[in-house]
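Why does residue order matter? Because the sequence determines the fold. Keep that principle in mind as you read this record.
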Amino acid sequence: METTEVTREKLAADLRVVVADAEELLRATATAAGEKAAAARVKVQDSLEAAKVRLAQFSEASAEHAKAAARATDDYVHDHPWYAVGVAALVGLVLGALISRR
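Structure:
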């Protein structure tokens, strides 16, 4: 699941870069004349707007997913406090052992 979150974050970041680059390209070619150039600019502008909407929806969905996971974890810890303490202690012990070997 962690890999999926990293991949989603990278995808969102990459999409933001593409949108920014495309907007810059539109500004740079704003003075280009011709029917084809104008049509291409309109098409790119429409695609950019759609990408921005999808990116906003994706960000909102990711935030909701993270909130749901946090709520589920909180509920689980409240329902099983000693188990959670035991797992945390075990993780701390393993990390301590790994760090002390270096």
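The mean pLDDT is 81.
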